[in-house]
Amino acid sequence: MSQPRYAPDQPLAGAPFIACAQGRLQVEGVVVDELAARHGTPLFVYSRAAILSVLASYRRGLAGRNALICYAVKANSSLALLELLANAGCGFDIVSGGELQRVLAVGADPDKIVFSGVGKTPAEIALALQAGIHCFNVESVEELHAIARIARSQGRVAPVSLRVNPDVDAHTHPYIATGLQDNKFGIPHAQALAAYRQAAALEGLQVLGIDCHIGSQIVDVAPYVQAVDRILDLVAQIKVQGIDLQHVDLGGGLGIRYADETPPLPHELLAAIWQRLDARGMGRHQLILEPGRSLVGNAGICVTEVLYLKTGEHKNFCVVDAAMNDLPRPALYQAFHDIVPLHVPAADAAHRVYDVVGPICESGDWLGRDRRLAVRAGDRLAVLSAGAYSMSMASNYNTRPRAAEVLVDGDSARLIRRRERMEELWQMELLER
Ligand code: LLP
User: Fold this and answer.
1) Is residue 59 part of a domain?
2) Cβ–ligand 1 contact at 270 (below 6 Å)
3) pLDDT value at position 312?
4) Is residue 342 a part of any domain in this protein?
5) Are residues 333 and 220 in the same domain?
6) Residue 185 in domain
7) What is the pLDDT of residue 57?
8) Domain edge (last residue) among 291, 315, 347
9) Mean pLDDT of the chain
10) Residue 414 phi, psi dihedral angles, 5° rounding
11) So what's the pLDDT on residue 298?
């Protein structure tokens, strides 16, 4: 991973929408350095066309089928992106009352919202029932009872689907694998049938579907096919009990290219999924998907400025103004994000190998290790593949204001979130005096 980038045979993650033109990094038709000069750094920049092109690949794989795409809001919950996806006809997968209110704020159709998560509070359940969401993805029998009780108290019927843990290995980072027996998620496969019987008998519930989500950053079709087979086995058994399910929700999880991964395109994955559904005569069920990372991950970059180049005993450090509070994935998962300069370096520029680190007082605050770069203080760099699980996981650690965000559409760019002001960081705090 330490070779200089911009080699013609190495398209950047996010290409063709994020690419180098005349020696300068551009997002669609906009020169990134000009955005950084105008808005400051750290700065997130997203490509509208990149998001819509992935969505088009999902749509291609769903053409002529009964299907619903529910974007997983947690991947990036910025209102402008939610608005873009709502206007493009997407529904949403939410995991909190906060995410529900975000999507309602951009005019989302409640009937296209599914509510996932292991720990829905009574207040969140009540709110979602009032909003009239499409379905609760229920993760335990205890939660089934809680939802039924709250629905009855409101005089409503709650649409539910049970999240089943299919015990499939998604071959991904242990923190983002969710479909194994040891994970906290879902109802164990062996207990699912009994849970369906209970759900069907509970007043206040309408049993609508079945649901699973086996993990994130999955770069292979095989774990999906395994999960589909395990889920369809259950659908058949549930039908024997007299419960006819309307939908099968396969969650999200499709990976993206951060380095040299070669995940299937959405329509390729979907072809494999339909093949299984059709082979078992279940292709007429509505298919729900909850993609997050694959829709936005490679549509975004984080622009940062080099503060200092520091020579250590064993390593060189490139200290930049973005940090683990802006880009938590390397610190949390040792995740790789490509890092490229905004200008192609001169052919004779001296390259050195650096650890790219932020200003936060933790050794875990690194953005990239052993990167070969030709940089000077004041230069700007772009951290690629930063559209998902970056801004939505950003914090104010070290009292650092969260970054600004810009959305590019062709030749124009729009500020979609201004940088936090310092005094906003402590305005909720109370002093004695
Ligand atoms: N549906 C459910 C129920 C989920 O738990 C998730 C993600 C998704 C859908 C969307 O998955 P995606 O398509 O984005 O892979 N912070 C981690 C990823 C955590 C994923 C949590 N669940 C990371 O940065 O890698």
Assistant:
1) no
2) no
3) 84
4) yes
5) no
6) yes
7) 98
8) 291
9) 95
10) -130, 130
11) 98
**Residue 266 and residue 350 in one domain:** no
Query: Where do runs of H (alpha helix) occur along 255-325?
Result: 266-279, 293-296
Structure tokens at 149: 């009780």
- Measured in degrees and rounded to the nearest 5, phi and psi for residue 209 equal -160, -165
* Distance from residue 265's CA to the centre of ligand 1 (Å): 17
Residue finishing a domain among 291, 313, 331:
291
- CA of 284 from ligand 1 middle (Å) equals 27
Can you say whether the dihedral through the CA atoms of 28, 30, 31, 36 is positive or negative? negative
Same domain, 166 and 245: yes
Choose among 371, 326, 328: nearest CA to 351: 371
- What is the pLDDT at residue 2? 45
Assess contact for 235 and 282: CB atoms under 8 A: yes
| Residue minimizing CA distance to atom 6 of ligand 1 | 252
Percent of the chain with pLDDT over 90: 90
Flag whether 194 is in a domain: yes
Q: Summarize pLDDT for 378-393 with one digit per residue, the tens.
A: 999 999 999 999 999 9
**Using one digit for the tens of pLDDT, what is the confidence trace for 46-68?**
999 999 999 999 999 999 999 99
Residue 75 Cα to ligand 1 middle (Å): 7
Please report which residue ranges of 132-252 form alpha helices under DSSP H. Answer: 141-154, 189-201, 222-240
Residue to mutate, 136, 216, 326, ligand 1, most ligand atoms under 8 Å from C-beta = 216
| 0.85 surpassed by pTM | yes
CA angle 39, 42, 44 (to 5 degrees): 80
Q: Would you give the distance in Å from CA 242 to the centre of its chain? A: 36
**Nearest by Cα to 253 from 223, 284, 289, 216:** 216
Residue 278 and residue 149 in one domain? yes
pLDDT at 185: 84
- Domain extent at residue 352: 11-47+297-426
Structural domains counted in the chain: 2
pLDDT in tens, 131-175: 999 999 999 999 999 999 999 999 999 999 999 998 888 777 766
Question: For residue 345, what is the domain's CATH number?
Answer: 2.40.37.10
Supply the residue whose CA is at minimum distance from atom 7 of ligand 1: 216
Tokens of 109: 């159709």
Active-site choice (90, 212, 318, 361): 361
pLDDT confidence of residue 167: 85
Closest CA to 113 of 297, 288, 308, 283: 288
Q: Is the pLDDT of residue 403 over 60?
A: yes
CATH number of the domain bearing residue 239 = 3.20.20.10
Q: Is 212 a catalytic residue?
A: no
Paired tokens of 281 = 């005569």
Same-domain pairing of 216 and 343: no
